[in-house]
Design goal:
- With 229 residues, the chain is of the alpha/beta class.
- The chain has ten helices and seven strands.
- It has a four-stranded mixed sheet with strand order 4-6-7-5, sandwiched between helices. Strands 1-3-2 form a three-stranded antiparallel sheet.
- A hairpin with a 2-residue loop joins β2 and β3.
- α1 crosses α2 and α4 packs antiparallel against α8.
- The longest helix is centred in the N-terminal third of the chain and has 15 residues.
- The chain is elongated.
- The chain starts with a strand and ends with a helix.
Length: 229
């Protein structure tokens, strides 16, 4: 995994080296000092961006998406409805425990033909959930592995499952979750961009209301089409 110095991270984040140093000194960036100089692990910076997306409002999401576009361009930037066709959607999702949800969602993503090993993806997602649960207060979980599973993916895949009733998915939080998205991204950039789009989408109460009223995969897919346009 690459290690970034202050100058490289400043270039990536489109900040000045002084701003990066200031953020690191204040504990706002994950890094460590080696020989008196800040160094940053690429995977930790990825996770920091991921958390920033999860806590962002629309204005912040605009900034993150602009950052990703400047760094990686928009080539091959598929819409959510393209990544998640009706064949990747289960209404209702027949699962009642965290393990069965994760297993069922990975099996669902595998129907696309782009995910070759649903069991391996399931284990990676379970490990991620144990480290950092992805269930949100709105009753949605944005499942994904900690890092892209490139060895078992042909390209990025998105799956959606909607349970007929909420289940206790995130231990200790006491909330119920009934809408599950599974993000299987081919690389870090794709993952962050998909996550930003989904975060914007699920922050709309009307979108979630439409999803929860869907009685078929086609209806749920149409909600994605309508609200992301």
């Amino acid at each position: 995994m690459d290690v970034l110095d202050v100058d490289k991270l400043a270039e990536y984040l489109h900040l000045t080296p002084a701003q990066v140093n200031k953020m690191a000194n204040r504990g706002k960036l994950p890094g460590r000092k080696v020989g008196g100089q800040w160094q940053f692990n690429e995977a930790e910076i990825h996770h920091w961006l991921e958390e920033r997306i999860g806590l962002s409002d629309d204005d912040e999401l605009d900034k993150v998406e602009a950052l990703l576009e400047r760094n990686h361009g928009d080539a091959g930037d598929a819409t959510l409805s393209q990544l998640c066709p009706p064949s990747n959607i289960a209404v209702p999702l027949q699962a009642r425990t965290r393990s069965s949800v994760i297993r069922s969602m990975c099996d669902l993503a595998a129907t696309s033909g782009y995910l070759w090993d649903a069991a391996a993806m399931s284990e990676a997602v379970k490990t991620r959930e144990e480290l950092h649960p992805t269930a949100l207060d709105c009753g949605v979980a944005l499942l994904h592995p900690r890092r892209p599973q490139t060895s078992i993916l042909a390209e990025s895949v998105l799956a959606l499952g909607i349970c007929s009733a909420g289940i206790p998915f995130s231990s200790g939080r006491g909330q119920l979750t009934d809408v599950f998205f599974l993000i299987c991204s081919y690389n870090d950039s794709a993952h962050l961009r998909i996550l930003a789009k989904l975060s914007r989408l699920v922050s709309q109460p009307d979108f979630l209301a439409h999803l929860r009223s869907a009685t078929s995969a086609d209806q749920a897919w149409q909600s994605i089409v309508d609200f992301e346009s």
